[in-house]
From TrEMBL:
UniProt cross-references to Pfam families, sorted A to Z: Annexin
Claim: Transcription regulation is one of the keywords in the record: no
Gene3D superfamilies: Annexin
Protein name: Annexin-like protein rj4
Molecular function GO terms recorded: calcium ion binding; calcium-dependent phospholipid binding; phosphatidylserine binding
Phylogenetic classification of the source organism: Eukaryota, Viridiplantae, Streptophyta, Embryophyta, Tracheophyta
Organism: Thalictrum thalictroides
PROSITE patterns named in the record: ANNEXIN_2
Recorded GO CC terms: cytoplasm; plasma membrane
GO terms for biological process, alphabetical: response to cold; response to heat; response to salt stress; response to water deprivation
Keywords: Annexin, Repeat
Signal sequence residues: none
Length: 152
């Protein structure tokens, strides 16, 4: 579910993008337009490489840094955009489950439109679903009989 983006003619290296993001988030305030100019003009694979380069350069998780610098809806958008599509869908499904009465349409759309293919996607999906199930059990969202019914 990748969006159409206007990419620059020459895409900077992930290292250059990581350095630019670091400059944007350092100091007082965050320059949202500068952050948008990097993140929104890269595809999923490029954003993953930027996250990796940021980690290597600064020994810091880029997503956690962005979460600490941003607020409100912009933080939510950036947080979700920085994940690959499978993880983003899992995040949205988890958020929808927390307030099911208001978000059931989102959950139905995610579940009914997602296609599972490829072992990498299945492993990622299984990990995300296991985390959601773990959190639900930890928060006692299900009783023991419901949990047993989940596993055939």
């Amino acid at each position: 579910m990748e969006s159409v983006q206007c990419a620059p003619d020459v895409v900077p290296s992930p290292r250059e993008d990581a350095e630019k993001i670091r400059n944007v988030v350092q100091g007082f305030g965050t320059h949202e337009k500068a952050l948008i100019s990097v993140i929104w003009h890269r595809n999923t694979a490029q954003r993953q490489l930027i996250k990796q380069a940021y980690q290597e350069l600064y020994n810091e998780d880029l997503i956690k840094r962005l979460e600490s610098e941003l607020t409100g809806d912009f933080e939510k958008v950036v947080y979700r955009w920085m994940h690959d599509p499978v993880d983003r869908d899992a995040i949205l499904a988890h958020a929808a489950l927390k307030n099911l009465s208001q978000n059931y349409k989102i959950l139905i759309a995610l579940v009914s439109t997602h296609r599972y293919d490829g072992s990498e996607i299945n492993a990622s999906l299984a990990s995300s679903e296991a985390n959601i199930l773990h959190d639900a059990i930890k928060e006692k969202a299900f009783n023991h009989e419901d949990v047993i019914r989940i596993f055939p």
